[in-house]
């Protein structure tokens, strides 16, 4: 219970839930993708009903169809779903269809202080909170402990050291130094790592006047360094030209690459039954920084929000508070009894540093906590899907064909500026 974790609320019921079960008998419909974390929550819905009297029903929608489904329901004026989860970068464009939560959070004294700031930023747009973080991702650098030992190198602390280590391992063992994902066509995934380099070089997509800035001197340097493992130093797995996120994880898991930088969800794959690796071969560290002293990482989350069309907003918020409670995520992350619900994701600072959570997951969350302290959210722009489509293709084409980075970014900048101007932020 919250009172036992030192994050108590001035009321008898836990998790800032309203006393007296005022919404008992209500059914709340939740739209969400099918993931181990949510399957584990579903197994525990009896706890929610015991605490609130509310029945929550999970309605699974494939991740690739989720944005279209939320948008279609909103455009149709449907109140079929009370709670929906969304990718954080979709938040600005979905905000007209989501209920602002600030007043509810304040009225119920729901504690937001235990979240890493990046997860709060991922759940808001222009200062308004639209969701509560439930599923969040930290970026980590995974590496082959055994290959690093053979090559006599330590895990890198900077991106320059990453290239040096990759070359040493590749020369010594014949295994590609790192798997990257420069490919396009899978949800703009190649932009996550690119934005690490952009933030690391203190570059921005747009300036304060909403003018494109990613093609300035800093953006060119960031993009050049991002592409360097493949194009300049030749330490990226050659398949990285086409790889998307799942491909680079598989490359590492199948023993074909010595490093991979990816969200921590990948850990279960890297040491899972389909991997050729043993857990003791897989190490992980925080995302390396940059030679200028800047530390950079991307934090990502899928907040849960209340549909503005819901006729059960108050009951939905009760369900949401329960879903977002730290005791639930600790229970899920420490329960390894069922492979179908085996999960490592936690989003509260207290859970990230929880001894039992880290014991059950080989210390993964403590390292994730380190990355999250310097992490920043992806750009929160209403025009992100359109702008990202241009940038995704630009990065992928540069990786596949090479060419003048400045010229490519200048061309992309012209397109992105038109997109932004058509729909001012």
Word description of this protein:
- By secondary structure, the chain is of the alpha/beta class.
- It has 2 domains: 2-137 and 302-369, 3-Layer(aba) Sandwich (D-Maltodextrin-Binding Protein, domain 2); 138-298 and 378-422, 3-Layer(aba) Sandwich (D-Maltodextrin-Binding Protein, domain 2).
- 44% of the residues lie in helices and 13% in strands.
- The strands form 2 sheets. Strands 1, 2, 3, 6, 7, 8, 9 and 10 form an 8-stranded mixed beta sheet that branches. A two-stranded antiparallel ribbon has the order 4-5.
- Helix 10 packs across helix 11.
- The longest helix has 18 residues, at 384-401.
- The chain is globular and about 65 Å long.
- The chain starts with a helix and ends with a helix.
- The model is unreliable at 1-11 (pLDDT under 50).
Helix tally equals: 20
Rg, nearest Å: 22 Å
Indicate the CATH architecture of the largest domain: 3-Layer(aba) Sandwich
Proportion of β residues? 5-15%
